[in-house]
Design goal:
The complex is a heterodimer of chains A (about 400) and B (about 210).
Chain A lengths: L2 H17 L10 E2 L4 H5 L4 H6 L1 H14 L4 E2 L7 H7 L4 E2 L8 E2 L12 H6 L1 H13 L9 H31 L7 E2 L3 H10 L1 H10 L1 H25 L8 E6 L7 H21 L3 E6 L7 H4 L8 E4 L4 H8 L4 E4 L3 H6 L2 H15 L5 E2 L14 H14 L4
Parallel strand pairs in A: 1-2, 5-6, 6-7, 7-8, 8-9, 9-10
Antiparallel strand pairs in A: 3-4
Helix pairs in contact in A: 1-8, 4-8, 5-8, 9-10, 10-11, 11-12, 16-17
Chain B lengths: L3 H10 L2 H12 L5 H23 L5 H22 L9 E6 L7 H12 L3 E4 L6 H11 L3 E5 L4 H15 L7 E5 L5 H7 L3 E3 L2 H12 L1
Parallel strand pairs in B: 1-2, 1-3, 3-4, 4-5
Classes of the chains: A alpha/beta (about 400), B alpha/beta (about 210).
């Protein structure tokens, strides 16, 4: 086996051992640099969205110049797909800005449409949501069909390009990618894309039963969408991994979390664990009031990327349940000195590394050009790779 | 006369039915300006209770978002009646989600709570250019400038805004508070703001401290 392939395998072993809550040779370092990578390579976010090859080049530069064991994912969006379908939901505010999504453009389902949604979520998505969201799909045939075919073709090409980037990263730099796809909770789907966040908080109060039924009805479809992504790429020797960004839970009170969020969440997590797929939720916000809930998840079968929380408490509560990722404050990479960054990394490792089960990473993806100073990232990651060796 | 205590409680419980019924009753009367003022006051007190329930961990962001919406609809309904009277305002705040960011949920929560605390709020909306904030500050001479954003790139815009206020010679006449997910003490210092908060109720208290 070539040196690069050895390196690739060594990194994969380190990561997956840690995910299984075994102690690897050292704490793995995950690169969570997102669209920051574009700027690091001299591109804008828009450039890499319109030209996937540039996204690949940016990731090659990250793999070449930053000390990491794994890059979390191919971060760009396929601009051509959105264009073919006539989406107006994504906004560039300036050339140097990142693409954003506004709550206003999410409000595309009316509040009295829940019963129709619940009756057949797939049909509702195809017949009601998509034409409202994508202007080209609202046109009559054959314009609509052509737009759909063009979008599907662009999406297929994008998949091919992503696969090629993943292959190049492995072959040239021995660099694995962690995530094979992304899933969303039905409630986050409804809030982010169908009703808007403000709309959903009103619906919880004004039509609680219909809202709960819609979430329940949507859950099997969300699972199918996830399994579709698992099977989209070629098989791998290690389990496939899905990112599961969780948006609303920390905005909910516990009673609402228990009623609307947790049952579907647990069902989704158990389903994928049973199918040997590692789901790694991004636990956005402060999850401390839900740690007891998280202890109920299938042990050693999931990971948890955390934004907030006391590392001691997280280790104490979750060490037997899941591998912990993240917690390093991204703003420190931007505003802190090297010494401050290293002190924080040391604190995290002292609390989270013992016995295994911790993957070093930032508390959120780096997005904007100024989100992290490269010299800080390099200093911190080098420190983790030395200090995190298990003796 | 509607029972103001019941109204305060209904606002605190976010019980729209009770609120709407009472407001319809007020609006059905002639010469209702004075009573409408009382209703607004009662709802503002209810919002203070909402803030307290948030502080105590009973309510969360979702409840605050909904509370803002409920208060807004109360004010909209009462507007015709209120125009006859006038209400004394606490301080004046120019508020914006800064350039480069479209996220306004946190800003809107803060706006509804600070309005309920009797501040006059000039909300410039989302993705607001630095120059627009500076011009507005010149025009309305506020006590406070509130800058909000969720993305880390908002921090740069906040810094540019504070710098521009400095350059325009306006920085000493206003307090600047920043809010949103990425703000913290380090960030606040680096940006040159007077205060930061990730909690709207706490932000309101800081503002009250400045004008009180």
């Amino acid at each position: 086996m070539s040196e690069v392939m050895n390196l690739y395998q060594e990194r994969l072993n380190r990561i997956f051992k840690t995910l299984r809550l075994e102690q690897a040779d050292r704490v793995p370092v995950l690169g969570t640099y997102g669209t920051w990578s574009s700027y690091f390579a001299g591109y804008t976010d828009a450039e890499t969205n319109w030209d996937t090859d540039k996204c690949g080049k940016a990731l090659m530069k990250v793999a070449d110049e930053l000390p990491v064991d794994m890059i979390h994912m191919i971060y760009n969006r396929p601009g051509g797909v959105y264009q073919a379908l006539g989406s107006s939901a994504f906004h560039y505010l300036s050339d140097s800005n990142i693409v954003q999504y506004s709550d206003e453009s999410a409000q595309i389902m009316k509040d009295d449409e829940y019963p129709e949604f619940t009756k057949d979520p797939f049909r509702f998505l195809v017949e009601k949501v998509l034409p409202r969201k994508y202007a080209e799909l609202a046109k009559d045939s054959p314009m609509r069909d052509l737009a759909f075919a063009k979008g599907a073709m662009k999406f297929g090409m994008y998949g091919g390009q992503k696969g090629a980037i993943e292959g190049s990263l492995a072959a040239q730099y021995g660099m694995p990618l962690l995530f094979d796809g992304i899933i969303l909770h039905p409630m986050d789907w409804i809030a982010d894309f169908f009703r808007g966040i403000k709309g959903v908080f009103g619906d919880i109060r004004r039509r609680p039963a219909e809202f709960a039924e819609a979430i329940q009805a949507f859950t099997p479809l969300v699972i199918r969408l996830g399994m579709g992504q698992v099977h989209m790429g070629p098989p791998k020797p290690n389990p496939k991994v899905l990112l599961f960004p969780l948006h609303l839970p920390t905005m909910l009170k516990v009673a609402d979390f228990d009623k609307y969020y947790w049952p579907s969440f647990k069902m989704i997590m158990e389903f994928f664990a049973a199918h040997n797929v590692y789901v790694i939720p991004f636990y956005e916000g402060d999850w401390s009031r839900y740690y007891n809930h998280l202890q109920e998840l299938p042990a050693k079968k999931t990971g948890g990327w955390f934004e907030h929380g006391d590392p001691k408490e997280i280790k104490d509560k979750l060490k037997d349940t899941m591998c912990v990722i993240g917690l390093f404050p991204a703003t420190l990479l931007q505003y802190g000195t090297k010494e401050e960054c290293i002190a924080k990394a040391k604190e995290l490792l002292d609390n989270l590394a013992p016995g295994g089960g911790y993957i070093f990473g930032t508390d959120k993806e780096l997005l904007a050009p100024a989100d992290g100073k490269a010299e800080n990232i390099i200093a911190v990651n080098e420190f983790v790779m030395e200090y995190g060796i298990y003796k | 006369m509607v029972d103001l205590k019941v109204l305060t409680q209904a606002m605190s419980d976010l019980d729209e039915d009770v609120l709407n019924k009472a407001i319809d009753e007020v609006l059905s009367k002639d010469d209702n300006a004075a009573e409408a003022q009382e209703v607004v006051k009662a709802c503002q007190q209810g919002m203070t209770l909402v803030g307290e329930r948030y502080d105590s961990g009973e309510y969360f962001i979702g409840d605050l978002v909904f509370a803002g919406e409920v208060l807004q609809s109360v004010m909209d309904k009462l507007k015709p009646a209120l125009s006859a009277g006038s209400s004394a305002k606490g301080g004046k705040i120019v508020l914006a989600t800064v350039f480069g960011d479209l996220h306004d949920i946190g800003k809107n929560i803060f706006r509804s709570m600070v309005e309920a605390a009797n501040f006059e709020v000039i909300d410039l909306g989302i993705n607001v250019p630095v120059s627009q904030i500076v011009d507005k500050v010149k025009e309305v001479n506020p006590d406070i400038v509130g800058l909000s954003g969720v993305l880390t790139l908002a921090l740069d815009s906040m810094k540019e805004t504070v710098n521009a206020l400095n350059e325009a010679g306006l920085r000493n006449s206003v307090k600047v508070i920043i809010g949103g997910v990425p703000v913290n003490e380090n960030v606040c210092k680096s940006i040159g703001a007077d205060a930061f908060s990730t909690n709207a109720a706490e932000g309101v208290k800081i503002c009250q401290g400045w004008v009180g």
